[in-house]
Structure formats: C-alpha cells, structure tokens
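Sample intake sheet
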Amino acid sequence: MKIQDIMTRDVQTIRVDQTLREAAEMMEQIDSGALLVNEGDRLVGMLTDRDIAIRAVAKGKDNDTPVREVMTPNVCYCFEDEDVQHVAENMADIHVRRLPVMNREKRLVGVVSLGNITACNSPQISDTVLHGVAQPH
C-alpha cells in the first residue's frame, strides 16, 4: 500500500508572515494541532500548538507575532508513492506524529498522520509507528 492511498489530501497551510492569532484561529476551525507553513509555493516549516505554547506564550510573545518566529523549520516529509511500511518506520525513527506528503516535483499533496496509518488496518504497520512515536526522546 502506498502513502497516497491513506493520506489526507485537504491540507490547510499558513504563510510565514501570518500571525499566531491567525494560526490559532485556523487550528480551531480545522480542529488540528498543526499547520504546514509555506512561503510562496515552498513548504518551509510546520507550526504546532506546542510551538505556540513553548516558543511564543512562554517567551511572552504577543498574538501578532509572525508565524516564522516560532515555527519549526526544516520539516521532514515523505513522497506520495512511498510504501506505508517504510514511512511508518521513518516516522517511528524520527519520533513524529505527522509528515507532509510531497509529489516527486516536491509539491505538497497531502499529510499523513498516526491516524491515517492506524486506519490502514495493518497491526504490524500501526505497531511500528506507535511504538516509535510513543517512546520518550
């Protein structure tokens, strides 16, 4: 089975120059704790609710702070034609709960999460990613 068979295709992104308030509002609207960050047509980072709490709120930054100041840069990703087992192993190794999915032209086409992987009904694949992500790091 390939990632393109299980990934979520409708992905919400935010621009680097948008504010943390806008990011939080988007997260609330789509009921997600993470947004992919783009600059022009390039994926440049990810912003999580944890980034907002640790890198913004805890440091006294205000709601008008640009996303670029607190996002996680250098995001790992996978390709849509990769095998689910391979991606699950990679997610476990790098301890991430979600990965952007790119086509071979490196354009964002979706996102794959723990939920997508567990929904593919393969106990072996689910165990692989859950054990890796659940380990303390």
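Comment: The chain is about 35% helix and 25% strand. The helical segments are 20-30, 49-56, 84-94, 114-118, 123-134.
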